[in-house]
């Protein structure tokens, strides 16, 4: 992986590490395995949300943040595929809200799927 950090200030790209497939694992179990290997993803989502808060955005969508992180990763690396499972979006929102309960007004949440 070759990162071009100087071209994207504020973005700290690290290599995505994928966990071994867990046969029969729930979304939550797969998320926990991924998050354990890639804690920087949450940090980047938090930093992006903080920038939105600083610009007084009334709402923030986790889907937008995911796509922006994918795009920024692609801009900062050459040849690396960025794999960020859309099933993990709801889990990341909840972690963001655990860290920042004051952001509750920014995100819409639904009941979690357990499969």
Q: How are the secondary structure elements laid out?
A:
Elements: H1 27-37, H2 39-54, H3 62-76, H4 89-99
Helix pairs in contact: 1-2, 2-3
Summarize the structure.
The protein is mainly alpha-helical.
Number of helices: 4
> Tell me about the biggest sheet?
none
The count of β-strands is 0
**Low-confidence segments:** 1-8
* Sheet/helix structural class: mainly alpha
Order of helices and strands: HHHH
Helix content: 40-55%
Overall shape: it is: globular
Overall radius of gyration: 15 Å
Distance between the termini: 33 Å
* Estimated share of beta-strand residues: under 5%
The average pLDDT value, as a whole number, equals: 83
Description:
By secondary structure, the protein is an all-alpha fold. The protein has four helices and no strands. It has helices at residues 27-37, 39-54, 62-76, 89-99. Helix 1 crosses helix 2. The longest helix is centred in the middle third of the chain and has 16 residues, at 39-54. It starts with 26 loop residues before the first helix and ends in a 16-residue tail after the last helix. Mean pLDDT is 83; it is low at 1-8.
Descriptors:
115 residues; mainly alpha; 4 helices
């Amino acid at each position: 992986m070759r990162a071009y950090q100087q071209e994207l200030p504020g973005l700290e790209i690290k290599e995505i590490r994928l966990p071994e497939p867990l046969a029969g694992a729930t979304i939550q179990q797969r998320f926990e395995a991924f998050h354990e290997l890639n804690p920087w993803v949450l940090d980047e989502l938090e930093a992006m949300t903080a920038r939105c808060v600083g610009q007084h955005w009334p709402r923030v969508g986790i889907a937008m943040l995911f796509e922006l992180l994918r795009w920024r990763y692609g801009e900062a690396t050459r040849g690396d595929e960025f794999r960020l499972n859309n099933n993990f979006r709801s889990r990341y929102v909840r972690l963001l809200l655990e860290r920042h309960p004051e952001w509750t007004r920014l995100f819409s949440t639904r009941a979690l799927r357990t499969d």
